[in-house]
Specification:
2 domains, about 280 residues, Rossmann fold, about 40% helix, binds adenosine monophosphate, alpha/beta, Pantoate--beta-alanine Ligase, Chain: A,domain 2, 3-stranded antiparallel β-sheet, 6-stranded parallel β-sheet
């Protein structure tokens, strides 16, 4: 039977008792409204640990004032039943007061890796992510924590934070899970109308286009980005391209030429949904 904890002291006691029995603990932090992307992380955690803890917390500190914190989809009952089917041992689902009982005076800011991509467009977003993830790491105290490459910059930022701050935790990256037509699974896909849902495939298709250009010998990143932009703007439901960037996949710094260690990442507004996707370049 899955256990659901809302209080920090209760999830701490649960993990402490598992650890006393010599069990390893895998942790999957989420904002809920679970889909196959989240469940793939859970399955990976299950295969590598004795005990799996999933957190469900829509973290206010990582949303900007004009972003979708209030509208973010939530369905705790469904989430818990999905996690029960995956044989997850415990869910940590605190409310905002439990996580932030008073004003937080501490900032965790990872430099450089947050300067481009979503970090440039969503000011303060990664500070909010780093704050909540460090709090969750200190609360849950896992051996391994699982992050999707769908949020590639987040994965790199957390990986670095863990290294810089000596968290005794292995950060495990997991591949992007997609719908049949290539759209990356996302809780925000629920915002899409039928027509927007069809047009939302333009993100993945533009990455495929870039891949094809590279395979045909186009290594100039500006020309690849221009081709992706032109392709995406051909879809009616696209309201705005937030960014398309080609960066070194370790430093996340933009590059002018493909060398085989890059990430192509983009964020596009389709209807009211801001969707992201990315692809690691193979040559
Ligand atoms: P979220 O609930 O959006 O904060 O996501 C929680 C975790 O699930 C993060 O590590 C995400 O990167 C991961 N995730 C979300 N969507 C996908 C996906 N389509 N494929 C793989 N991982 C994902």
């Amino acid at each position: 039977m899955i256990k659901v904890f809302e209080k920090i002291k209760d999830i701490r006691a649960f993990v402490e008792s598992a650890k006393r029995e010599g069990k390893s603990v895998g942790f999957v932090p989420t904002m809920g409204y679970l889909h196959e992307g989240h469940l793939s992380l859970v399955r990976c955690a299950r295969s590598e640990n004795d005990v799996v803890v999933v957190s469900i917390f829509v973290n206010p500190t990582q949303f900007g004032p004009s972003e979708d914190y209030k509208d973010y989809p939530r369905d705790m009952e469904r989430d818990i039943s999905l996690l029960e089917n995956e044989k997850v041992h415990a869910v940590f689902a605190p409310d905002v007061k439990e996580m932030y009982p008073e004003e937080t005076l501490t900032t965790i800011h990872v430099e450089k890796l947050t300067e481009h991509l979503c970090g440039a467009k969503r000011k303060g977003h990664f500070d909010g992510v780093c704050l909540v993830v460090s709090k969750l790491f200190n609360i849950v105290n896992p051996d391994r924590a699982y992050f999707g490459k769908k949020d590639y910059q987040q994965y790199r930022v957390i990986e670095r934070m863990v290294r810089d701050l000596n968290f005794p935790i292995s950060v495990v990256p997991c591949p992007i899970i997609r719908e049949e037509d290539g759209l990356a699974a996302s809780s925000r896909n629920i915002y899409l109308s039928e027509k927007e849902r069809k047009d939302a495939t333009c993100l993945y298709k533009s990455l495929r286009l870039a891949d094809k250009l590279i395979k045909n010998g186009e290594y100039n990143t500006k020309r690849i980005i221009d081709a992706m932009k032109e392709f995406i703007m051909g879809f009616e439901s696209v309201r705005k391209i937030d960014y398309i960037e080609i960066v070194d996949k370790y430093t996340l710094e933009p590059v002018s030429e493909i060398k085989g260690r890059e990430l192509i990442a983009l964020a596009v507004y389709v209807g009211k949904a801001r969707l992201i996707d990315n692809m690691e370049v193979q040559i």
